[in-house]
Amino acid sequence: MQRREFVKWLGVGTGVGAVMASGRGFTQDADFTFYSALAEQWYRAGKYFEWTSTTEYNNERKVNVFYRQFGDPQNPALLLVHGYPTSSFDYRDLIAELEQEYYLCTLDFPGFGFSDKPQQGYSYMLADDARLLHHFVHEILGLQQFSLYTHDRGVSVGLAFLDNYLQGNNQHYQLDYHFMSNSGMFLPLANLFPGQTVLLDPVRGPEAIRQLKAVPRRTEGTPEEVAYADIHAFNDGIGARLGVGKYLLERAVNETRWLELLPGSPVPVGYLWGMLDVVNPVRIANHVWSTYLNQRQQESSFWYIPLGGHYPQRDQPEQVARVIRMCLQGQVPTVEQEDAFMRTYAASREQDWPLYVGRSQVRQMEFPGAVPYSPSGYRY
């Protein structure tokens, strides 16, 4: 069966939509060919809204932003924020785990997924995306309260969003919970590969993009591999990486200031990390937890996903969902309860379940009723 016949058999069209108005469906356009039914179905089920960039050098340029909604809007809302160089599609499997319990909303930032990807000198900025996130929550979704799950580049967007929220700029709603996952959120401990940093070079960066674009798009493989190939190719996402990849420069300047927001934030934090991540090793998570989260007065919990890599929401969606449920359903122990919790949780957990990391509170060790110690021995 030919690819187009197969898609027709699935009941899915083969044309890609042109740019759309706010919240509306798409019109047919034959300029782009999908090779993945998964990617095309994701695209066709989405909506668009228009965003006017707030970045000075973008001169109020307007872009169309793709988004999806899942579950019952009457359920607790959870906003899923993607990383680099991927898109909302990253959360497909996690959404399947949670959509019966939560109202799940996600979007593709400009430069990613099915959103616009301008390349004529457009500056892709984390601060602009943080303001876009506020617009999405307040103007498009109309949420009164929600939780925020962030990953990779999205963690920096989420921290910039938190900065605005704590300054009182976003008083239209309540942020209930703040989840952070694998990210180079402290770059001095990251293990960046050359393909990331080369994009920052004004000479080698464009050449690297030219080489990437010369590689034919994948049209065969697993359904997920072909889907990601389609999504990256849409609106020349490979070419857009030259601009989007510069977010590392903005993160490096702001990361310490953003991290310093966490100790005083009144928003509970669920911190989870795929242990098999080699680009953002677990040393980043350990540093951020011990420096900024361990002593917080507000509820905080730290979880290792033992079989998860850089994308735990893709590698281990059941286990990420488990952490989300435990946090949002009030199952995180207090500091006083956590020693007992760790013992009972360890006794019941299976090997792929998240590992709970307790707070580190160094205390003077005392053994009431014990015989005195001396180098000479013990007197009984």
Quick description:
With 380 residues, this protein is an alpha/beta fold.
Fold blueprint:
Elements: H1 3-10, E1 16-17, E2 28-29, H2 37-44, E3 47-52, E4 62-70, E5 77-81, H3 92-98, E6 103-107, H4 126-141, E7 145-150, H5 153-166, E8 174-180, H6 194-197, H7 204-214, H8 223-233, H9 237-244, H10 247-259, E9 269-274, H11 282-293, E10 300-305, H12 312-315, H13 317-328, H14 338-348, E11 355-357
Parallel strand pairs: 5-6, 5-7, 7-8, 8-9, 9-10
Antiparallel strand pairs: 1-2, 3-4, 4-6, 10-11
What do these coordinates show?
With about 375 residues, the chain is of the alpha/beta class. The protein has 14 helices and eleven strands. The strands form two sheets. A nine-stranded mixed β-sheet has the order 3-4-6-5-7-8-9-10-11, with helices on both faces. Helix 4 (about 125-140) crosses helix 5 (about 155-165) and helix 7 packs antiparallel against helix 9 (about 235-245). It starts with a helix and ends in a 23-residue tail after the last strand.
